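Side project, low priority. Logging it here so it doesn't get lost.
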Amino acid sequence: MVVIPAVDIKGGKCVRLLQGRMEDETVYSETPWKMALRWQEAGGEILHKVDLNGAVEGRGVNDDSVREIIEHTDMNIELGGGVRDMARIDSLLEMGVDRVILGTAAVENPDMVGEAIQKYGPEKIIAGIDARDGIVATRGWTKSGRKSAVELGNEMKERGVNRIIYTDISRDGMLTGPNIVETERMAKETGLLITASGGVSSLDDIKALKRLETSGVDSVITGKALYEGKFELSEALEAAITESYEIDHDRKNC
């Protein structure tokens, strides 16, 4: 089980939202790259980054912060938020992002997901499935995708996706524990690799998700629990014993 720290950007700052509500934010750093470097120094190898403004506006808004993180760290970066066309995917990968997360596009333009997989391979393209009460939400979680999360997961599998980041919106930023049942269901009913997201509040949560490794849940994203000091990243990494998430260690020469 791999533990992936999150740095979400809104207005150029590192923030955490409650259940994705843009107006309900807590600012944790004015300089996101310094926060990313903190997680790297604590042992993190992958960074989950979301352009929150971009997710709502449908375009890259916080690219300067992305470039600064790439410049100042050696972490492998997976990024989502407002990625709606091939040109944006091309731009992010050329910028140095390692994996691009497609959320709204997975619902609204699944053909593009298949095209991106064909061009870059499944190791570069991840489907982000964010659900509220089992139903997919899109456009920064402001719209309903009008289909079940599992249904979308299977559609993405048909397009060539091999990894999903699955987020239970009701748990995100709430420190109430991950949705173990739905995360396991997503893994078992799609047969895909799953990165769990939303609600992690303790080392016990990470251990509980680790028990789902045999079902395909091999990694977990944690944000607010780290920022609120519920545990140290080093403790989480030790609890998870990371082995399964593929990393290209030679990507950068920074």
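Brief comment: The mean pLDDT is 90.
Revisit when time allows.
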